[in-house]
Write a structure and sequence with these properties.
- With 255 residues, the chain is mostly helical.
- It contains nine helices and no strands.
- Helix 1 runs antiparallel to helix 3 (68-97) and helix 8 (195-208) crosses helix 9 (214-238).
- The longest helix has 39 residues, at 103-141.
- The chain starts with 14 loop residues before the first helix and ends in a 17-residue tail after the last helix.
- The mean pLDDT is 77.
């Protein structure tokens, strides 16, 4: 029988029941994602207007093929649908692994379920309101007297969505570092001691993010450094390693 509630830690499930539950979780995730993508495609004009917002006034992306408007619109709807369905997708993944978690581990993971989509949305908002305007202003005006600068729809929406997704994942740095401290792999003291090496790695990450100009790289590097410092604060406050309780072994000695 398909189940929609999360099993308890002490609830024994057979292999068939685990597979049945996995199938149910996958079906629910696909249905939710399909509904979210359909809703975004239905309201695609609002999405495209929002994505065209960072462009200079009066400028719209151009298309060079008959199929490009549909393909670009569909890709944008898929990305927006994934973002919209992210909280439910995370819950379905959490509900499937729930039987393997103790009550203490559940209390640790539950805040992650709230903070991960929240930080992802914050990263997308930062990318939209801060990174994209600065990057587009620099790129579209660079040597503009020597080029007839046009914005192709497929390339522009690909650049915008990739930048926003990258900033959403970048804002997960505190969650990743907090998870490492929870697992006992590192400590807040080590994080603070190796700060300069972390800054170097973050600078390399900023160079690898979308946007090849120095302005975009610097704009993306600043939140990375701030997020790393926030990670140290969170690790000191909530980064105590998880201690799994071990069930006592029965005494098998003969009387």
């Amino acid at each position: 029988m398909a189940r929609f509630r999360a099993p308890r830690h002490d609830e024994g499930l057979t292999l068939v029941e685990h597979l049945d539950e996995l199938r149910t979780r996958i079906i629910v995730s696909i249905v939710v994602l399909g509904v979210a993508v359909s809703l975004c495609f239905w309201q695609n004009h609002l999405l495209l207007d929002a994505l065209n917002g960072p462009l200079p006034p009066g400028r719209k992306p151009i298309t060079l093929s008959p199929s490009e408007p549909f393909l670009a619109t569909f890709k944008v709807s898929v990305y927006a649908g994934i973002l919209l369905a992210l909280p439910i997708l995370l819950y379905e993944a959490y509900a499937f692994v729930l039987p393997a978690l103790s009550s203490a581990e559940r209390r640790v993971i539950l805040p992650f379920l709230v903070l991960v989509p929240t930080l992802f949305a914050a990263g997308v908002a930062f990318g939209y309101y801060v990174v994209l305007p600065g990057a587009l202003h620099f790129l579209l005006n660079f040597n503009s007297g020597q080029f007839n600068v046009q914005v192709r729809a497929g390339d522009y929406y690909g650049f915008v969505t990739l930048t926003l997704l990258a900033m959403g994942f970048v804002f997960q740095v505190p969650m990743g570092i907090l998870a490492l401290t929870k697992l006992g792999i590192t400590t807040p003291r080590q994080l603070a001691k190796n700060r300069r090496y972390a800054y170097l790695i973050l600078a390399i990450v900023a160079m690898a993010l979308p946007g090849t100009d120095p302005v975009t790289m610097l704009v993306e590097l600043v939140p990375l450094l701030l997020l790393y410092e926030l990670s140290i604060v969170l690790a000191r406050a909530f980064g105590a390693p998880i201690t799994r309780q071990v069930a006592p072994q029965p005494d098998t000695r003969l009387p």
